[in-house]
Amino acid sequence: MEQSKIKNMNKYRWFIWGLLAFAYIIVFFHRFAAGVVKDDLITDLALSETGFASLGAMYFYAYMFMQIPVGFLADSLGARKTVTIGTVFAAIGSIIFGLAGTVFLAFLGRFLVGLGVSVVFISILKILSTWFKESEFGTMSGITSFVGNMGGLIAQTPLVWMVSMFTWRNTFIAIGVVTLFVAVLIYVFVRNTPQEKGYPSIASLEGREEKHATKVKVNLFKALLEVVTNWRTWPPFVIFACFFGSFTALSGYYGTSFMMDVYGLEKSEAANYMMAAVLGLAIGSIVIGKVSDAMEKRKLPMLISGILLLLTWTTLVFMNNGQPALGLMYPLLFIMGLSTSAFILGWACGKEMNNPKVAGISTSVVNMGGFFGAAVIPTFVGNALAGGHDAVAYNTAFKVAYICIVIGCLAIFLVKETNCKNIYKG
Q1: Sign of the CA dihedral 349, 350, 351, 354?
Q2: What is the DSSP string of 181-230?
Q3: Contact present, 217 and 76 (Cβ < 8 Å)
Q4: Please, is 221 exposed, middle or buried when counting C-beta atoms within 10 Å of its C-beta (0-12, 13-18, 19+)?
Q5: pLDDT digits over 393-416, tens only?
Q6: Are the C-beta atoms of residues 334 and 277 closer than 8 Å to each other?
Q7: Which of 158, 68, 35 minimizes the C-alpha distance to 364?
Q8: Domains by residue range for the chain, with CATH
């Protein structure tokens, strides 16, 4: 009977993960969609370049500021209710964004989307900590990021097609309706722990102390203070901010227009190049997790990926005055995305260097870094672009992102090697 329960649990955990991963696809769609519909937004809403950057950043600001409460909610309210409520907010925001006739409503819709989807990934990590083995955490984090990035792919060339057929407004309204349906499925089927379905806990199966099997009352202030005063939390924060922020500036904001303005490509063809970058990130996310778990190392694979990322940005910024040969751009952008995945290991590092009882909050703090970077760095890049649309203007703007990549690489040297195990000592 016990073996039967274990077998059923192993099946059901993948079903739960699949539902949450689908929600994560929607997260990534909204994350990268702004760059593709940039011209439509500027025209319909009479936005300036700065206004567009601010509109795009609303998603990331909402996402960033929600990370601490999301960690608390994941640790107390539970992943099921947290994600259900969040996806309902995201659905409403997407519909408002599609219907927006004013700049205010567009900002409100974008804000609600960011607010809603901000809960998804941290909640998935919480589910991974209760439904999957400790040794599987890095791999499953990578797999989750890989699947989520499929939403980023949809937000490139497929989004161009959808907008051309249905308009950008109808597309976002439809995404909102789909998101509502996903929220219902999550509420009905997701459970926070195996025990809620009558299955044994993962901790008991591994023969270790129960740390996540029951709800733990967490004092938010004390837990947050404990995490932020642990200096080992901050290098992964900086890495995520610099790497993901720079990648978002390129693939989610200005990469498509860069390929159109500098290389003279049509929008659908230009978006294909950004798809290469997002695909690289998707593949890198799953590969780096598996490699890290297999090596039982975090810092070394992160360092190798960081150096490779620096080389790709060096090529983009300095080769031929910021205009590498077009034939080089597909492999260059793919490798850039592949190596950007170094930040994936930051989540595991944050979890493994803090008290297991505050796993949600410690991961949330690290996660804030990426969305701080994704909100701020594209804005600085946009300001540096200053409305210019030639190779010189884009080269100047991308140098801002390059400096951030250098800072992120330096932060890797400050990462504490955990050997894929929790090293917290209270």
Answers
A1: positive
A2: HHHHHHHHH--SSGGGGTPPPHHHHHT---SSSS-----HHHHHHHHHT-
A3: yes
A4: exposed
A5: 999 999 999 999 999 999 999 998
A6: yes
A7: 68
A8: 2-412 (1.20.1250.20)
